[in-house]
Design brief:
0% strand, Leucine-rich Repeat Variant, cytoplasm, 14 helices
Length: 201
């Protein structure tokens, strides 16, 4: 399925069944390249994800949260700036408060922490209020239990690759405590996943 087909499908915002499928596809497409992410945003995919953030379907909300985290992590500074212009940090707030699903909250917090690590947009992210939710939420989690939850979700059965985890380094090296906190937690979770799988590479 090509990029053009996916972009056409994002225009069908009110089709609930389609939203489940397309949000899942976008979740993965935002991991491809910075250029793919920029094309997706320019052609309305981010607008559609933010529209779906208003809904209540936990599957769609999880896909949206992961897609936004992937866009922030893999899209580079240009896409992060576009996310702020489209008020993604504000839309991450209700996701970070989600009572439906810890994974929705986690990925929303990860997305906002990654955005805040970009000094050019840090002030706008702080203004959204979403960043304040990161530390208390992460402090409430147990890495072992969270690793089990991730393993139970189909997309994370293998854990993250070393290349994926490299994207956490700017958070660890950054000045924001929220970023350091969520990156360190994520690395603990991944260590737990890898040890369960006896994969220490």
């Amino acid at each position: 399925m090509g990029l053009g087909v996916i972009l056409n499908l994002t225009r069908e915002q009110d089709d609930a069944q389609l939203a489940r499928s397309v949000s899942g596809i976008l979740e993965h497409m935002f991991k491809h390249t910075e250029e793919t992410s920029a094309q997706l945003i320019t052609n309305g995919a981010l607008d559609t994800l933010l529209y779906w953030c208003r809904g209540t379907d936990p599957t769609v909300l999880r896909h949206c949260a992961v897609a936004l985290a992937n866009c922030a992590m893999y899209g580079g500074h240009r896409c992060q700036r576009l996310m702020i212009e489209k008020q993604a940090a504000e839309w991450l707030f209700p996701l970070a408060f989600s009572k439906e699903d810890e994974l929705i909250r986690f990925y929303a917090c990860l997305a906002v922490a990654v955005l805040a690590a970009n000094r050019e947009i840090e002030k706008e992210v702080v203004k959204s209020g979403t960043l304040e939710l990161v530390e208390p939420f992460i402090a409430s989690l147990d890495p072992e239990e969270f690793a089990r939850n991730l393993l139970d979700s189909a997309d994370s059965m293998q854990g993250r690759t070393a290349a994926d985890l490299q994207h956490l380094l700017p958070l660890l090296d950054g000045t924001r405590l929220e970023g350091k906190c969520i990156a360190a937690f994520y690395l603990c979770v991944e260590t737990s996943i890898k040890s369960r799988q006896r994969n220490t590479k």
